[in-house]
What we know:
The complex is a heterodimer of chains A (116) and B (113). Chain A is an all-beta fold.
Amino acid sequence: xxxxxxxxxxxxxxxxxxxxxxxxxxxxxxxxxxxxxxxxxxxxxxxxxxxxxxxxxxxxxxxxxxxxxxxxxxxxxxxxxxxxxxxxxxxxxxxxxxxxxxxxxxxxxxxxxxxx
Amino acid sequence: xxxxxxxxxxxxxxxxxxxxxxxxxxxxxxxxxxxxxxxxxxxxxxxxxxxxxxxxxxxxxxxxxxxxxxxxxxxxxxxxxxxxxxxxxxxxxxxxxxxxxxxxxxxxxxxxx
Lengths: 116, 113
């Protein structure tokens, strides 16, 4: 399967600042990537679908102006949490789609965001 | 709409004992089914998947799962668990052409020595 990395693995920031999280597909050209958030002891919640060269598709209830997604190349998607607040503290995980035929996704190791 | 239910939030088994984690799905067409495992603070690793064909699928780390259409289930099994199997397990369902996955709530597995 595809190898996916995320950077940083953890970040602490002050309330009101913006944080950028990178998701890289190291050995696979990914036209589609996904961004999830996961609260402690809970399941993954899909935030948005990131498509290379086009605008991301956000799930209902996810603020697109707060969670900016850019998928400028086939190997890199970024998630920027703008004006972060403590309630944005969470574990953010990206995944790479292996294609629409089989739905398989390969996941990154996640980024722990803590907003003080 | 697709949905996935994992009835057991937390399961504890003794090392060497057998394991079965339950997963029920709701989907109108033939689903694509997955089991993922997540260690604390880590991403998800695919254990196994079912698309079509043989309803008993083998995965990594000695896991297997059986697709039962009549019961809308895709339970995960392992004949003998190891302490390293302690983790969170997620069942997920997808469909051809949709790309998105819907995840269950997860089952946390604890292993007693």
